[in-house]
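[audit] Reproducing an earlier prediction to check determinism. Same input, same settings, fresh worker. If the tokens differ from the archived copy the diff job will pick it up downstream; this log only records the rerun itself.
[audit] input (256 residues):
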Amino acid sequence: MEFIHNCRLVTINIGLYKRWRVATGIVVVFFLASLSGILYSPLEEWSAKFANRNYNGEGLIEILEAFFWLSASLAYLFLLIRNVRQRRWTMTSTWFLFFTCFCFLAFGEEVSWGQHIFHFQPTETVISFNKQNEFNIHNLNLSKIFDLEKEYNLTYFLNPLFYALCGILWLVVPLLKKAGWLQRNRLFAALPAPSYPTVLFLGANIAAYIIVDKLFFDIGEIFELALALTGLMVPLDIMFDDSIQPAAFSFCKKAA
């Protein structure tokens, strides 16, 4: 039985690395597409639309982001229902509920709460206070709402907050837990931990965003795609590996 259990862990571990490789491949494709438009001017317009660089259209990358966020929300909902059925309500259930809502909120904002799907037209009042004439929160024109002289868009404040929250919950806290620093904290000890490949994927993309976006060219949308992929990979890590506990990473060990 122990041999079968460890063989199952090996199979699951291979699946973890497959997800990591697929996610990395998707991000690399969009990065190269964006880079091609910068290096070769005839591809500049196509590249900007494909990778949504300084382009306000609804390109492939945003469609994928919306799909990944919705899938992540449904995956967390499944984990919530499973956890409640098995253990009643726990602190981990609360985390699953939080991430279900968090990912659904990201999905809703990505599709402007159905506007990009059903192509409905918001009211003139909504349009007048939204920088991109869309039915969402993150593009609210704060300058017009509060009658400010300088141009301020709510996304200037929400984006850093959103990035920081994803980085803390899916990178910083898991690493601190791995180091044994948060095991006594009831709240964070119950946080479902992603696999090591997922943490590595997010950390690498954060580093790439800080370096490339700040020093070379805009890859903000590509970074948001990486966050959406991470958002989906985390519940999949938990869903397909029962050995992943809220307080630790999962590693496949050889049988003694």
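[audit] rerun output stored. Observation attached for the diff report: Residues 1-14, 245-256 have pLDDT under 50 and may be disordered.
[audit] end
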